[in-house]
Amino acid sequence: MNLTERERKVLEAVIESYVATAEPAGSRTIARKFPLGVSAATIRNTMSDLEDRGYLFHPHASAGRVPTDLAYRVYVDQLVPPRPTTSDVEALRRELDGEHTPIEALLKKAAQVLGVLTQELGIAVGPSLDAAVLERLELIKVSHERLLLVLALSGGVARTIFVEVANGLPQEAVAGVGAVLNDRLTGLTLREIRTTLRARLRDTAAVSGESELLNIFIEEAEQLFDQPAGQEDVVLLGSAQMLAEQPEFSGSNERMRNLLELTERRDLLRQALRSRPGAGLTVSIGGEHADPRLSAFTIVTASYQQGQIAGVIGVMGPTRMPYQKIVALVEHTSQLMGDLLR
User: Can you tell me the distance from the alpha carbon of 48 to that of 58, in angstroms, rounded to the nearest whole number?
Assistant: First the structure.
């Protein structure tokens, strides 16, 4: 952003001071707390130049300076995050490293631990299963009129769906259809199964009971092999009250209303997360969000992936947040999620 070395150091100092104290930073405070090697007067002049260029602003006429969204953006783009602390890494692994944990439970735990470690709101989005590969399926008769369909998918994901059937369907027919479905569908993605199931079962030779059940699967393929309702919903873990205690919200009724609305209406966050530019780490700051109701917040997310299973994990908090710590933790958590899915 064409900043001189002195301007960059002063801007970093102002940001770090404001993040730590939530108080506007004055030149004397910066000179006293940060070893910049220049006088308070020089720092004051540099801060004035940075304000003219849109990096800082005065909340009040006699107050110190506060970083703008542009300042945070420059800070984040130049940031080389350190590794998370050993204690944070151990806390993440202790909570997440469990055998045979369903991915949905693992994701909620990850968001919860991130929220605790960062003191922000943990965010997670469930993986899209359209590209998940069917490894095997089971049909279990649970009553005269109901079967349980269990889908074991790549990445350790399992789905269970109840299938309504005719009364008195023999167990032999259920076992026969299960064998046919495994033979014809194993190794395909859910999307492929939905779009080609009819063709794949067209030439199946079956007895009367099996034919009836196979027809149910053909007619209901869209529902049985579709993304589960709510699977891609945003999981928001943490207390709005926790953020409400931050100075950004305690003195602003409008920001407090926006905070409460965000925690109650997940569609706003869902839209913001869908607009992420792609895989990897994303930091969206304040006014960069398309929805003005998110202008007081920063959302830090990273994608996790194993094979065709992919999703998003991260945190949401005020724009005044310890970016180094949070970026490092979010990136490490996304990597850990990928490792655990493997």
Answer: 10
Residue 80 lies in a domain: no
**Two tokens at 280?**
């990897």
Q: What average pLDDT does the segment 26-32 reach?
A: 94
106 vs 113: CA distance, rounded Å: 11
Tokens linked to 13? 């100092």
Chain centroid offset of residue 325 CA: 17
CATH code of the domain in which 102 resides: 3.30.450.40
Structure token pair of residue 266: 């997940």
Q: Are residue 299 and residue 206 in the same domain, yes or no? A: no
Tell me the pTM. 0.76
Does one domain contain both 55 and 97? Answer: no
**Contacts of residue 196, Cβ cutoff 8 Å, sequence gap at least 6:** 188
- Asked, for residue 79, whether it belongs to a domain, the answer is no
DSSP result, 222-274: HHHTSPPTTTTPEEEES-HHHHHTSHHHHT-HHHHHHHHHHHH-HHHHHHHHH
Alpha-carbon distance of 38 to 245, in angstroms, equals 36
Domain that holds residue 266: 86-128+232-341
- Is residue 307 included in any domain, yes or no? yes
β partners of residue 304: 311
Asked if 216 and 199 count as a contact pair (C-beta separation under 8 A), the reply is: no
The residue among 80, 87, 28, 27 whose CA lies nearest residue 51 is 27
The C-alpha R_g of the chain, in whole angstroms, comes to 26
Across the range 162-168, mean pLDDT stands at 81
Distance CA 123, CA 127 (A): 13
Residue 195 CA to residue 192 CA, distance in Å, equals: 5
187 secondary structure, DSSP code: T
Measured N-to-C along each axis, helices 208-219 and 171-185 cross at an angle, to the nearest 10 degrees, of: 50
Question: What is the tally of structural domains in the chain?
Answer: 3
Judged against a pLDDT cut of 80, whether residue 240 lies above it is answered with no
